[in-house]
Write a structure and sequence with these properties.
Blueprint (H helix, E strand, L loop, with lengths): L36 H13 L29
Length: about 80
């Protein structure tokens, strides 16, 4: 803490697990057919953070974002 005090409690902690799957396409010719998984996850992070309700004393903050990819992931070419 800035004043040298020690934090001795927390309101709570939670985890959200999000899964998104995209669809690879050529950005120059078939862009409208693709699905961007990263964009969807970004929208969902905003939804989670918008669950904050100061009147109820509920605050949410996405402080860590981990991406797990299968070890056999290859770039898919359309």
């Amino acid at each position: 803490m800035p004043d040298g005090a020690i934090k001795t409690w927390r309101k709570g902690v939670g985890d959200f697990v999000l899964t998104a799957r995209g669809r690879a396409v050529h950005a120059g010719s078939d862009h409208q057919l693709g699905r961007n998984a990263i964009e969807e996850l970004a929208h969902q992070i905003i939804v989670i953070q918008n669950m904050t309700n100061y009147h109820q004393g509920t605050t949410l903050n996405v402080g860590l974002f981990v991406v797990e990819l299968p070890p056999t992931l290859f770039l898919k070419r359309p």
